[in-house]
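Section 3.1: Structural characterization of target chains.
Under the original work plan, the team committed to producing a structural model for every single-chain target entering the pipeline before any wet-lab resources were allocated. The record below documents one such target. The sequence was received from the expression subgroup and is listed exactly as submitted; it comprises 126 residues.
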Amino acid sequence: MNFSKANKIFYSFAVLFASVAELVDLPAGRQARWKWNDAVMIWVYAIASFEKNYIYVGMTKDLESRFKRHSRGWEKVTKNYRPFVLIYQECCPDRLEGRKKEKYFKSGVGKEYLRQLRDSIIENTL
């Protein structure tokens, strides 16, 4: 192995290690995040468990596939609360507006509104 080849391998290793180190040095809540395209419409949604007193609020770019993931048990947070009914959905023009709406529905006032909505929907389906 000549010196230039060894330098290339070392440089490649250093670049790989530096990119991994950058990911690890991020704050806990910021790791492995998507880079959202602000031009994409964002769905804010709420799903309620049929069997337990549980409401989940989230946001996504693809509502249909996200709801399927929750329903199939592929999401760790909602896995134990299946089956679900979609009780609320709203399309927001960008991620910032979607996040504001999501935070509202995770607050006490927003959660209470979703509980009333859930109760009326489940009452009508039974």
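The radius of gyration is 21 Å.
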